[in-house]
Amino acid sequence: MVLTRTATESNENVCSTFGSRYVRTVLPKYEIGENSIPKEAAYQIIKDELMLDGNPRLNLASFVTTWMEPECDKLIMDSINKNYVDMDEYPVTTELQNRCVNMIARLFNAPLGETETAVGVGTVGSSEAIMLAGLAFKRNWQNKRKEEGKPYDKPNIVTGANVQVCWEKFARYFEVELKEVKLSEGYYVMDPDKAAEMVDENTICVAAILGSTLNGEFEDVKRLNDLLVKKNAETGWDTPIHVDAASGGFIAPFIYPELEWDFRLPLVKSINVSGHKYGLVYAGIGWVVWRTQTDLPDELIFHINYLGADQPTFTLNFSKGSSQIIAQYYQLIRLGFEGYKNVMENCRENMVVLKEGIEKTERFNIVSKDEGVPLVAFSLKDHSFHNEFEISEMLRRFGWIVPAYTMPADAQHITVLRVVIREDFSRTLAERLVADIVKVLHELDTLPSKISRKMGTEGLLGDGKAKKVEREVLMEVIVGWRKFVKDRKKMNGVC
Fold it and tell me: N6-(pyridoxal phosphate)lysine occurs at which residues (predicted)?
Protein backbone atom coordinates (compact mmCIF):
# COMPACT_ATOMS: atom_id res chain seq x y z
CA MET A 1 0.00 0.00 0.00
CA VAL A 2 1.29 3.40 -0.94
CA LEU A 3 0.61 6.15 1.51
CA THR A 4 0.41 9.62 0.05
CA ARG A 5 0.49 12.93 1.86
CA THR A 6 -0.61 16.30 0.55
CA ALA A 7 1.82 19.04 1.44
CA THR A 8 0.60 22.49 2.38
CA GLU A 9 2.47 25.71 2.08
CA SER A 10 1.96 26.43 5.75
CA ASN A 11 0.56 24.66 8.75
CA GLU A 12 -1.34 27.89 9.41
CA ASN A 13 -3.80 26.92 6.68
CA VAL A 14 -4.93 23.79 8.47
CA CYS A 15 -4.70 25.00 12.06
CA SER A 16 -7.61 26.45 13.98
CA THR A 17 -7.27 30.09 15.05
CA PHE A 18 -6.36 29.03 18.58
CA GLY A 19 -3.81 26.62 17.21
CA SER A 20 -2.05 29.28 15.18
CA ARG A 21 0.87 31.44 16.18
CA TYR A 22 -1.31 34.60 16.25
CA VAL A 23 -2.74 33.85 19.67
CA ARG A 24 0.74 33.66 21.21
CA THR A 25 2.31 36.55 19.33
CA VAL A 26 2.18 40.02 20.81
CA LEU A 27 0.55 42.31 18.27
CA PRO A 28 1.39 46.03 18.18
CA LYS A 29 -1.22 48.12 20.02
CA TYR A 30 -0.29 51.68 19.15
CA GLU A 31 1.27 51.40 15.69
CA ILE A 32 0.31 49.51 12.55
CA GLY A 33 1.89 46.09 12.18
CA GLU A 34 4.40 45.20 9.49
CA ASN A 35 2.55 42.13 8.23
CA SER A 36 -1.02 41.03 7.60
CA ILE A 37 -2.76 38.37 9.66
CA PRO A 38 -5.63 36.05 8.65
CA LYS A 39 -9.13 37.51 8.94
CA GLU A 40 -10.18 34.73 11.33
CA ALA A 41 -7.32 35.54 13.68
CA ALA A 42 -8.01 39.29 13.57
CA TYR A 43 -11.67 38.67 14.35
CA GLN A 44 -10.99 36.29 17.22
CA ILE A 45 -8.33 38.50 18.82
CA ILE A 46 -10.63 41.53 18.85
CA LYS A 47 -13.66 39.50 19.93
CA ASP A 48 -11.75 38.01 22.84
CA GLU A 49 -10.59 41.39 24.10
CA LEU A 50 -14.09 42.82 23.80
CA MET A 51 -15.34 40.11 26.16
CA LEU A 52 -13.85 42.21 28.96
CA ASP A 53 -16.31 45.02 28.25
CA GLY A 54 -19.42 45.28 30.36
CA ASN A 55 -22.71 43.78 29.19
CA PRO A 56 -24.66 46.59 27.43
CA ARG A 57 -27.98 45.21 28.68
CA LEU A 58 -26.74 45.50 32.27
CA ASN A 59 -25.31 48.99 31.76
CA LEU A 60 -27.87 50.84 33.85
CA ALA A 61 -25.89 54.06 33.64
CA SER A 62 -26.88 54.68 30.03
CA PHE A 63 -30.07 56.07 28.52
CA VAL A 64 -29.00 54.72 25.11
CA THR A 65 -30.88 51.86 23.46
CA THR A 66 -29.18 48.47 23.73
CA TRP A 67 -31.76 46.20 22.06
CA MET A 68 -33.70 46.29 18.79
CA GLU A 69 -35.72 43.73 16.89
CA PRO A 70 -33.80 41.37 14.55
CA GLU A 71 -35.66 42.77 11.53
CA CYS A 72 -34.35 46.24 12.32
CA ASP A 73 -30.86 44.86 12.94
CA LYS A 74 -31.00 43.44 9.40
CA LEU A 75 -32.09 46.79 7.95
CA ILE A 76 -29.18 48.45 9.74
CA MET A 77 -26.67 46.00 8.27
CA ASP A 78 -28.24 46.30 4.82
CA SER A 79 -27.63 50.07 4.86
CA ILE A 80 -24.36 50.17 6.80
CA ASN A 81 -22.43 51.16 3.67
CA LYS A 82 -24.62 54.13 2.70
CA ASN A 83 -23.27 57.62 3.32
CA TYR A 84 -26.27 59.76 4.17
CA VAL A 85 -24.74 62.94 2.76
CA ASP A 86 -24.95 61.47 -0.77
CA MET A 87 -28.56 62.57 -1.03
CA ASP A 88 -28.70 62.48 -4.82
CA GLU A 89 -27.40 58.91 -4.84
CA TYR A 90 -29.68 57.78 -2.00
CA PRO A 91 -32.88 59.80 -2.47
CA VAL A 92 -35.08 57.29 -0.66
CA THR A 93 -32.94 57.52 2.48
CA THR A 94 -33.25 61.31 2.32
CA GLU A 95 -37.01 60.96 2.02
CA LEU A 96 -37.09 58.69 5.08
CA GLN A 97 -35.24 61.33 7.08
CA ASN A 98 -37.73 63.97 5.98
CA ARG A 99 -40.59 61.72 7.03
CA CYS A 100 -39.00 61.25 10.46
CA VAL A 101 -38.57 65.03 10.88
CA ASN A 102 -42.23 65.63 10.04
CA MET A 103 -43.48 62.84 12.30
CA ILE A 104 -41.45 64.14 15.23
CA ALA A 105 -42.41 67.79 14.64
CA ARG A 106 -46.10 66.88 14.64
CA LEU A 107 -45.59 64.69 17.71
CA PHE A 108 -44.31 67.86 19.39
CA ASN A 109 -47.34 69.85 18.19
CA ALA A 110 -45.53 72.06 15.69
CA PRO A 111 -47.96 74.57 14.14
CA LEU A 112 -48.10 72.89 10.72
CA GLY A 113 -50.90 72.61 8.23
CA GLU A 114 -51.71 69.30 6.56
CA THR A 115 -49.53 70.07 3.55
CA GLU A 116 -46.80 72.03 5.33
CA THR A 117 -43.31 70.58 5.73
CA ALA A 118 -41.58 70.66 9.10
CA VAL A 119 -38.20 72.32 9.62
CA GLY A 120 -35.63 70.03 11.17
CA VAL A 121 -32.66 67.77 10.65
CA GLY A 122 -31.23 64.45 11.77
CA THR A 123 -27.99 64.57 13.74
CA VAL A 124 -25.55 62.11 15.29
CA GLY A 125 -27.12 62.79 18.70
CA SER A 126 -28.59 65.48 20.90
CA SER A 127 -25.19 67.10 21.41
CA GLU A 128 -24.98 68.07 17.74
CA ALA A 129 -28.68 68.97 17.75
CA ILE A 130 -28.13 71.37 20.66
CA MET A 131 -25.14 72.96 18.93
CA LEU A 132 -27.27 73.63 15.85
CA ALA A 133 -30.20 75.01 17.84
CA GLY A 134 -27.84 77.20 19.88
CA LEU A 135 -26.23 78.58 16.71
CA ALA A 136 -29.67 79.47 15.35
CA PHE A 137 -30.56 81.34 18.53
CA LYS A 138 -27.24 83.16 18.57
CA ARG A 139 -27.49 84.25 14.94
CA ASN A 140 -31.11 85.41 15.29
CA TRP A 141 -30.18 87.42 18.39
CA GLN A 142 -27.15 88.97 16.69
CA ASN A 143 -29.16 89.93 13.61
CA LYS A 144 -31.80 91.62 15.72
CA ARG A 145 -29.20 93.50 17.78
CA LYS A 146 -27.49 94.69 14.60
CA GLU A 147 -30.79 96.01 13.23
CA GLU A 148 -31.33 97.91 16.49
CA GLY A 149 -27.78 99.30 16.44
CA LYS A 150 -26.93 97.64 19.76
CA PRO A 151 -23.83 95.65 20.84
CA TYR A 152 -23.97 91.99 19.92
CA ASP A 153 -20.67 90.70 21.31
CA LYS A 154 -21.80 89.37 24.71
CA PRO A 155 -24.50 86.73 24.19
CA ASN A 156 -25.53 84.53 27.10
CA ILE A 157 -27.73 81.53 27.65
CA VAL A 158 -29.60 80.66 30.85
CA THR A 159 -29.76 77.04 32.00
CA GLY A 160 -29.91 75.03 35.18
CA ALA A 161 -26.73 73.65 36.71
CA ASN A 162 -28.17 70.20 35.94
CA VAL A 163 -27.72 70.49 32.17
CA GLN A 164 -25.79 67.89 30.23
CA VAL A 165 -22.18 68.74 29.40
CA CYS A 166 -23.04 69.45 25.74
CA TRP A 167 -24.49 72.81 26.85
CA GLU A 168 -21.17 73.73 28.43
CA LYS A 169 -19.45 72.68 25.22
CA PHE A 170 -21.74 74.88 23.16
CA ALA A 171 -21.07 77.87 25.41
CA ARG A 172 -17.31 77.39 25.31
CA TYR A 173 -16.95 76.48 21.64
CA PHE A 174 -19.20 79.25 20.33
CA GLU A 175 -18.30 81.94 22.87
CA VAL A 176 -21.58 82.28 24.69
CA GLU A 177 -21.70 83.02 28.41
CA LEU A 178 -23.41 80.23 30.34
CA LYS A 179 -25.55 81.53 33.20
CA GLU A 180 -26.49 78.63 35.45
CA VAL A 181 -29.28 78.49 37.98
CA LYS A 182 -27.76 76.72 40.96
CA LEU A 183 -29.46 73.72 42.52
CA SER A 184 -30.34 73.17 46.16
CA GLU A 185 -30.81 70.13 48.35
CA GLY A 186 -34.13 68.52 47.50
CA TYR A 187 -34.59 70.59 44.30
CA TYR A 188 -32.38 69.24 41.54
CA VAL A 189 -33.75 70.98 38.44
CA MET A 190 -33.79 74.55 37.18
CA ASP A 191 -36.08 76.87 39.13
CA PRO A 192 -38.07 78.74 36.43
CA ASP A 193 -38.50 81.80 38.65
CA LYS A 194 -34.76 82.12 39.20
CA ALA A 195 -34.11 81.48 35.52
CA ALA A 196 -36.46 84.29 34.48
CA GLU A 197 -34.72 86.64 36.91
CA MET A 198 -31.33 85.91 35.30
CA VAL A 199 -32.54 86.78 31.79
CA ASP A 200 -31.27 90.07 30.36
CA GLU A 201 -31.15 91.77 26.97
CA ASN A 202 -28.17 89.61 25.93
CA THR A 203 -29.91 86.29 26.60
CA ILE A 204 -30.24 84.37 23.34
CA CYS A 205 -32.53 81.75 24.92
CA VAL A 206 -33.39 79.86 28.09
CA ALA A 207 -32.79 76.11 27.91
CA ALA A 208 -35.28 73.91 29.74
CA ILE A 209 -34.67 70.19 30.28
CA LEU A 210 -37.41 67.65 29.74
CA GLY A 211 -35.84 64.84 31.72
CA SER A 212 -32.85 65.79 33.82
CA THR A 213 -29.85 63.50 33.49
CA LEU A 214 -29.43 63.59 37.26
CA ASN A 215 -32.84 62.42 38.44
CA GLY A 216 -35.10 62.20 35.37
CA GLU A 217 -37.33 65.06 36.49
CA PHE A 218 -39.15 67.23 33.94
CA GLU A 219 -38.57 70.95 34.35
CA ASP A 220 -41.62 73.22 34.42
CA VAL A 221 -41.50 74.55 30.86
CA LYS A 222 -44.99 76.04 31.03
CA ARG A 223 -44.17 78.05 34.13
CA LEU A 224 -40.99 79.27 32.45
CA ASN A 225 -42.94 80.22 29.31
CA ASP A 226 -45.50 82.21 31.31
CA LEU A 227 -42.80 84.08 33.23
CA LEU A 228 -40.91 84.96 30.07
CA VAL A 229 -44.07 86.09 28.26
CA LYS A 230 -44.64 88.54 31.10
CA LYS A 231 -41.00 89.68 31.21
CA ASN A 232 -40.83 90.13 27.44
CA ALA A 233 -43.96 92.29 27.54
CA GLU A 234 -42.46 94.44 30.30
CA THR A 235 -39.02 94.87 28.74
CA GLY A 236 -39.66 94.71 25.01
CA TRP A 237 -37.26 91.76 24.70
CA ASP A 238 -38.08 88.60 22.82
CA THR A 239 -36.34 85.91 24.86
CA PRO A 240 -37.23 82.43 23.49
CA ILE A 241 -37.05 78.92 24.93
CA HIS A 242 -35.26 75.83 23.70
CA VAL A 243 -36.40 72.50 25.15
CA ASP A 244 -33.71 69.87 25.56
CA ALA A 245 -35.95 66.81 25.32
CA ALA A 246 -33.09 64.40 24.69
CA SER A 247 -34.51 61.88 27.16
CA GLY A 248 -38.11 62.95 27.65
CA GLY A 249 -39.17 63.83 24.10
CA PHE A 250 -40.20 60.28 23.27
CA ILE A 251 -41.80 59.77 26.69
CA ALA A 252 -44.03 62.74 27.49
CA PRO A 253 -46.22 62.63 24.34
CA PHE A 254 -47.17 59.02 25.04
CA ILE A 255 -47.74 58.82 28.80
CA TYR A 256 -48.08 62.49 29.82
CA PRO A 257 -50.08 63.89 26.87
CA GLU A 258 -51.64 66.72 28.92
CA LEU A 259 -48.25 68.09 29.97
CA GLU A 260 -47.56 71.34 28.12
CA TRP A 261 -43.87 71.55 27.30
CA ASP A 262 -43.61 71.63 23.49
CA PHE A 263 -44.68 73.90 20.61
CA ARG A 264 -48.04 74.41 22.28
CA LEU A 265 -46.14 77.06 24.28
CA PRO A 266 -45.54 80.15 22.12
CA LEU A 267 -41.97 80.86 23.25
CA VAL A 268 -40.69 77.34 22.50
CA LYS A 269 -38.82 77.84 19.22
CA SER A 270 -36.84 74.60 18.93
CA ILE A 271 -36.69 71.15 20.48
CA ASN A 272 -34.06 68.42 20.34
CA VAL A 273 -34.61 64.75 21.06
CA SER A 274 -32.36 61.69 21.06
CA GLY A 275 -33.58 58.95 18.77
CA HIS A 276 -31.01 56.67 20.35
CA LYS A 277 -32.55 57.02 23.80
CA TYR A 278 -36.30 56.54 24.15
CA GLY A 279 -36.67 56.84 20.39
CA LEU A 280 -35.50 53.21 20.71
CA VAL A 281 -32.66 53.25 18.16
CA TYR A 282 -29.03 52.24 18.70
CA ALA A 283 -26.50 55.00 19.41
CA GLY A 284 -25.89 57.56 16.69
CA ILE A 285 -29.14 59.42 15.96
CA GLY A 286 -30.65 62.65 17.27
CA TRP A 287 -33.15 65.19 15.97
CA VAL A 288 -33.74 68.92 16.18
CA VAL A 289 -36.90 70.60 14.95
CA TRP A 290 -37.81 74.27 14.75
CA ARG A 291 -41.18 75.88 15.25
CA THR A 292 -41.15 77.72 11.91
CA GLN A 293 -38.77 78.40 9.05
CA THR A 294 -38.02 81.89 10.41
CA ASP A 295 -36.54 80.37 13.57
CA LEU A 296 -33.71 78.86 11.51
CA PRO A 297 -31.72 81.64 9.76
CA ASP A 298 -31.14 80.96 6.06
CA GLU A 299 -27.53 82.08 6.35
CA LEU A 300 -26.72 78.99 8.44
CA ILE A 301 -27.84 76.63 5.67
CA PHE A 302 -25.19 75.69 3.11
CA HIS A 303 -25.90 74.54 -0.44
CA ILE A 304 -23.61 72.10 -2.25
CA ASN A 305 -23.78 70.60 -5.74
CA TYR A 306 -20.63 68.52 -6.08
CA LEU A 307 -22.43 65.29 -5.19
CA GLY A 308 -24.77 65.53 -8.14
CA ALA A 309 -27.53 68.03 -7.29
CA ASP A 310 -28.18 71.10 -5.18
CA GLN A 311 -28.35 69.93 -1.58
CA PRO A 312 -29.05 72.07 1.49
CA THR A 313 -27.08 71.07 4.58
CA PHE A 314 -27.09 72.29 8.17
CA THR A 315 -24.89 70.01 10.24
CA LEU A 316 -21.60 70.23 12.08
CA ASN A 317 -20.20 67.15 10.37
CA PHE A 318 -20.55 66.03 6.76
CA SER A 319 -20.42 62.30 6.15
CA LYS A 320 -22.45 60.01 8.39
CA GLY A 321 -24.16 56.65 8.16
CA SER A 322 -27.71 56.15 6.94
CA SER A 323 -28.49 53.09 9.04
CA GLN A 324 -29.65 54.90 12.19
CA ILE A 325 -32.03 57.12 10.21
CA ILE A 326 -33.52 54.03 8.58
CA ALA A 327 -33.76 52.37 12.00
CA GLN A 328 -35.62 55.39 13.39
CA TYR A 329 -38.11 55.26 10.54
CA TYR A 330 -38.57 51.53 11.19
CA GLN A 331 -39.44 52.17 14.83
CA LEU A 332 -41.84 55.00 14.04
CA ILE A 333 -43.88 52.95 11.56
CA ARG A 334 -43.45 49.61 13.34
CA LEU A 335 -44.54 50.79 16.79
CA GLY A 336 -46.79 53.72 16.01
CA PHE A 337 -48.34 55.70 18.85
CA GLU A 338 -49.77 52.55 20.44
CA GLY A 339 -46.45 50.71 20.47
CA TYR A 340 -44.45 53.61 21.90
CA LYS A 341 -47.08 54.11 24.58
CA ASN A 342 -46.91 50.44 25.57
CA VAL A 343 -43.12 50.52 25.81
CA MET A 344 -43.08 53.69 27.91
CA GLU A 345 -45.80 52.40 30.23
CA ASN A 346 -43.82 49.17 30.73
CA CYS A 347 -40.71 51.19 31.56
CA ARG A 348 -42.65 53.26 34.07
CA GLU A 349 -44.17 50.18 35.74
CA ASN A 350 -40.78 48.48 36.04
CA MET A 351 -39.41 51.71 37.50
CA VAL A 352 -42.09 51.55 40.20
CA VAL A 353 -41.19 47.92 40.97
CA LEU A 354 -37.53 48.83 41.38
CA LYS A 355 -38.29 51.93 43.43
CA GLU A 356 -40.54 50.02 45.83
CA GLY A 357 -37.94 47.28 46.22
CA ILE A 358 -35.24 49.84 47.07
CA GLU A 359 -37.56 51.60 49.53
CA LYS A 360 -38.22 48.31 51.32
CA THR A 361 -34.56 48.07 52.30
CA GLU A 362 -35.15 51.22 54.41
CA ARG A 363 -31.56 52.25 53.67
CA PHE A 364 -32.10 54.79 50.89
CA ASN A 365 -33.78 58.09 50.13
CA ILE A 366 -35.40 58.25 46.68
CA VAL A 367 -34.22 61.35 44.81
CA SER A 368 -36.03 60.81 41.50
CA LYS A 369 -39.66 61.70 40.77
CA ASP A 370 -42.51 59.46 39.66
CA GLU A 371 -43.32 61.77 36.74
CA GLY A 372 -40.40 62.02 34.37
CA VAL A 373 -37.90 59.75 32.69
CA PRO A 374 -38.30 56.17 34.02
CA LEU A 375 -35.30 55.91 36.30
CA VAL A 376 -34.60 55.52 39.99
CA ALA A 377 -32.07 57.82 41.64
CA PHE A 378 -31.40 57.12 45.30
CA SER A 379 -28.92 57.94 48.06
CA LEU A 380 -27.95 56.37 51.35
CA LYS A 381 -29.68 57.64 54.47
CA ASP A 382 -26.61 56.94 56.59
CA HIS A 383 -23.09 57.69 55.38
CA SER A 384 -21.43 56.90 58.69
CA PHE A 385 -19.59 53.83 57.46
CA HIS A 386 -20.03 53.42 53.71
CA ASN A 387 -21.05 55.42 50.67
CA GLU A 388 -22.69 55.15 47.25
CA PHE A 389 -19.37 54.73 45.43
CA GLU A 390 -18.67 51.52 47.34
CA ILE A 391 -22.12 50.16 46.47
CA SER A 392 -21.56 50.99 42.80
CA GLU A 393 -18.18 49.26 42.83
CA MET A 394 -19.49 46.12 44.52
CA LEU A 395 -22.51 45.79 42.22
CA ARG A 396 -20.10 45.34 39.31
CA ARG A 397 -19.21 41.94 40.73
CA PHE A 398 -22.76 40.85 39.82
CA GLY A 399 -22.44 42.37 36.34
CA TRP A 400 -24.48 45.51 37.08
CA ILE A 401 -23.14 48.89 35.98
CA VAL A 402 -24.83 51.41 38.29
CA PRO A 403 -23.22 54.86 38.40
CA ALA A 404 -22.61 56.87 41.55
CA TYR A 405 -22.10 60.61 41.18
CA THR A 406 -22.36 63.90 43.00
CA MET A 407 -24.92 66.59 42.23
CA PRO A 408 -23.82 69.90 40.65
CA ALA A 409 -23.47 73.21 42.52
CA ASP A 410 -24.89 74.02 45.05
CA ALA A 411 -25.87 70.48 45.94
CA GLN A 412 -22.49 68.83 45.39
CA HIS A 413 -22.55 67.32 48.88
CA ILE A 414 -25.35 64.99 47.73
CA THR A 415 -24.24 61.68 46.19
CA VAL A 416 -26.68 59.40 44.38
CA LEU A 417 -26.91 56.10 42.56
CA ARG A 418 -29.01 55.98 39.39
CA VAL A 419 -30.68 53.13 37.51
CA VAL A 420 -32.09 53.95 34.07
CA ILE A 421 -35.04 51.79 33.03
CA ARG A 422 -34.87 51.04 29.33
CA GLU A 423 -37.11 48.96 27.09
CA ASP A 424 -35.05 45.80 27.66
CA PHE A 425 -35.00 46.09 31.48
CA SER A 426 -37.68 43.63 32.59
CA ARG A 427 -39.44 43.17 35.91
CA THR A 428 -37.37 40.03 36.49
CA LEU A 429 -34.17 42.07 36.15
CA ALA A 430 -35.58 44.74 38.47
CA GLU A 431 -36.27 42.16 41.17
CA ARG A 432 -32.85 40.59 40.67
CA LEU A 433 -31.13 43.98 40.99
CA VAL A 434 -32.91 44.66 44.29
CA ALA A 435 -31.79 41.26 45.59
CA ASP A 436 -28.19 42.02 44.62
CA ILE A 437 -28.34 45.46 46.26
CA VAL A 438 -29.50 43.78 49.47
CA LYS A 439 -26.54 41.36 49.22
CA VAL A 440 -24.13 44.25 48.77
CA LEU A 441 -25.59 46.10 51.75
CA HIS A 442 -25.28 42.99 53.91
CA GLU A 443 -21.66 42.49 52.85
CA LEU A 444 -20.80 46.15 53.48
CA ASP A 445 -22.30 45.88 56.96
CA THR A 446 -19.77 43.16 57.76
CA LEU A 447 -16.78 45.14 56.44
CA PRO A 448 -14.81 47.81 58.27
CA SER A 449 -15.58 51.36 57.23
CA LYS A 450 -13.38 53.01 54.59
CA ILE A 451 -14.26 56.39 56.07
CA SER A 452 -11.45 57.51 58.33
CA ARG A 453 -13.63 59.12 60.97
CA LYS A 454 -17.03 58.13 62.21
CA MET A 455 -19.62 60.84 61.96
CA GLY A 456 -21.13 60.14 65.34
CA THR A 457 -20.04 63.38 66.99
CA GLU A 458 -23.46 64.61 68.10
CA GLY A 459 -22.65 63.90 71.72
CA LEU A 460 -19.52 66.06 71.64
CA LEU A 461 -20.72 68.86 69.37
CA GLY A 462 -23.87 70.89 68.97
CA ASP A 463 -26.27 69.94 66.20
CA GLY A 464 -24.99 72.68 63.88
CA LYS A 465 -21.32 71.69 64.29
CA ALA A 466 -22.16 68.00 64.02
CA LYS A 467 -23.87 68.55 60.68
CA LYS A 468 -20.90 70.58 59.50
CA VAL A 469 -18.47 67.81 60.46
CA GLU A 470 -20.67 65.23 58.76
CA ARG A 471 -20.70 67.25 55.54
CA GLU A 472 -16.93 67.79 55.68
CA VAL A 473 -16.29 64.07 56.08
CA LEU A 474 -18.69 63.26 53.26
CA MET A 475 -16.89 65.72 50.98
CA GLU A 476 -13.55 64.09 51.87
CA VAL A 477 -14.96 60.75 50.81
CA ILE A 478 -16.37 62.19 47.58
CA VAL A 479 -13.06 63.84 46.69
CA GLY A 480 -11.22 60.60 47.42
CA TRP A 481 -13.49 58.54 45.18
CA ARG A 482 -13.29 61.15 42.43
CA LYS A 483 -9.50 60.83 42.50
CA PHE A 484 -9.80 57.04 42.49
CA VAL A 485 -12.07 57.08 39.41
CA LYS A 486 -9.88 59.67 37.67
CA ASP A 487 -6.74 57.58 38.28
CA ARG A 488 -8.48 54.50 36.87
CA LYS A 489 -9.45 56.41 33.75
CA LYS A 490 -5.86 57.52 33.28
CA MET A 491 -4.70 53.92 33.56
CA ASN A 492 -7.29 52.84 30.99
CA GLY A 493 -6.46 55.64 28.59
CA VAL A 494 -10.02 57.00 28.80
CA CYS A 495 -10.58 60.71 28.27
Answer: 277
